[in-house]
Amino acid sequence: MSLPQSLRVSVTPLELELIACEQLVEIVPLISMEKTAFISGAYGPLRPPSKSKVPLWMAINLKLKKKCHIVPPEWLTVDFLQERLSRETSQPQFSKLPFRFAEISKVVLDVASDDVPNADKIRSLLKDLREARQAKSREGLQQIDHSELSLPNLCSMEINEIRPVFVQSMGLLSQLVREPENRAGDV
After folding, report:
1. Domain of 182: which CATH number?
2. Pairing relationship of beta strands 52-55 and 68-71 according to DSSP bridges
3. DSSP line for 109-148
4. Would the pLDDT of 172 be above 70?
5. Domain tally for the chain?
């Protein structure tokens, strides 16, 4: 998101990634570790080759130290993303995706692309999906009125991207709606 500082009224993509790192993901540990308590909760025990659920931040840390493999979420597959892309391009409404899909997929592909089958194809599908959803967002913003904007199934990153435009537009629309009322009182 390359907006001037004056228009940034929302969270940065890096901050959204940090928030998304609290999501639980499955890993296949390569080391044994007893149950360990952290501020966010206790995780473990880790026993190879049994899968374990840990927060994404912990999975990243273990992966970078070559102490686990990250199991990609069930939605981070070529079949799932192709199906969602075809829905996006053929239906007017947004298809249902995990709320933090953009952040989680970016982090997993950046850190553990070797654990994701067809990582390059998935990157391409994610890019196409993002572009299709951005086009729908722009179309929805063009149909904005002073009372509401209904774009169900938007994800965290997408909401964050349209927030500055939406806030500014709603402010202007509110002024325009109030001006005729003020003029009517002047007569």
Report:
1. 1.20.58.1020
2. unpaired
3. HHHHGGGSTTHHHHHHHHHHHHHHHHHHHHHHHHT--SS-
4. no
5. 1
